Request: fold
Amino acid sequence: MLVAQISDIHARPALSSLQTLERAIGWLRTFRPDALVVTGDLVDDGWRQGYRLVAESLRSLDCPVHLLPGNGDDLQLMRSELAAVDPWISATGPMHFRAAIDGLTLFGVDVTVAGQSYGDVLPHLPWLMSALADVTAPALLFMHQPPFRIGIEVLDQVGCRNSTALLSTLKAMDRLPLAILCGHVHRPAFGRLGSIPVQTCGSLAPPNPLLLEGRADLPVIDAPSFLVHEVSDVRLVSHVVSIPTSDRSA
Reply:
């Protein structure tokens, strides 16, 4: 089972990330994953045409596509312009999703908070408990803001709050998710929530600098990237796929 994850497109007229998205989608059309999950921040500043262009690109894939909003998204526009891509569980309210694909269950929890850059999982734990209650297959849990400390202060201030409550909820379930998979930080990062692996996906917009322990703002040398998750039985291996900024064959 191959699940691709892209995140943080941040489409806007003056940014090249839509071109980066097209390169990523072109690669995925050849790669042919079993599903794609987009973990938020699709468009900046409520750009309706941006949502339409993202939807057009995603519809070119021959696999199920599931989407979560990010703190930068206009939820009303996102829901209306991408309804043909992912109908979500509810027509109103949080944009959670649950999907079963060949023995693997994908969960998406919308932890965004209106008007804020941080996320909060606490209001959504009752839904998550109910959604997980009857799951016996391996599962992946997707969110936008990560529920663990990245080590970059400006990002940790806008992570997902109430991670301890999330861990307690998950530990009460019969089966832990194989991983919690997030976006938001514009960098691949890897950690744990208790014993559960947590990963953040790189962005299709420009990556963030690695500001660890007060280090200087060094130039960003990372390429835009996304993740491909391979699940076999109860084994998860995740691969970073970098996207060159120009066509190397040119």
